[in-house]
Amino acid sequence: MLFRSTWNCPLNPNHTQPDFGRVFISYTPIKKIAETKSLKFYLQSYRYRDAFNEELATRICQDLVYFLEPSYLIVELHQNSRGGIANTSKVTYDSQDSSCLAAMKDYKPKTNFRGGWPKVKEK
């Protein structure tokens, strides 16, 4: 699936300068699938949130793994060029990989975040 999306640059002083990009999501479902419309609304929720490209790709992957419990998932986020530099972040999850499972073991969707991420790192 391909979605066009925007999010705000956290380094902009007013937090109003959007970054534009494309999000590619590919997964192998086991029991659950994502409805396209719901996924679109989920990605649109990042429009006025502050996030770096790498963090956002990781967050999307973690949330989708938590809710969908897929066998395999790839999230690729292609940020449009800004200042002559384009950025691509790719996050992969494989349920057969023990390191992926260990990283997701205690993950819960965050409810106290501004943007996609907590203002203060959780301990």
Residue stretches low in confidence (pLDDT < 50, at least 5 long) are 112-122
Biggest sheet descriptor: 4 strands, antiparallel
Strand order of the largest sheet: 1-2-3-4
Strand tally:
4
Radius of gyration: 14 Å
Terminal Cα span: 35 Å
Class of secondary structure makeup: alpha+beta
Topology as H/E string?
EEHHEEH
Shape: globular
How would you state the average pLDDT, rounded? 76
Percent in helix:
25-40%
Number of helices: 3
Structure description:
There is one protein chain. The protein has 123 residues and is α+β, with helices and mostly antiparallel strands. It is 26% helix and 32% strand. It is globular.
Give me the secondary-structure topology.
Layout lengths: L1 E7 L9 E11 L7 H9 L8 H16 L3 E11 L2 E10 L3 H7 L19
Record keyword descriptors for this entry:
123 residues; alpha+beta; 4-stranded antiparallel sheet; 3 helices; 26% helix; disordered C terminus
Short description:
Helix content is 26%, strand content 32%. The model is unreliable at 112-122 (pLDDT under 50). The chain is of the alpha+beta class and 123 residues long.
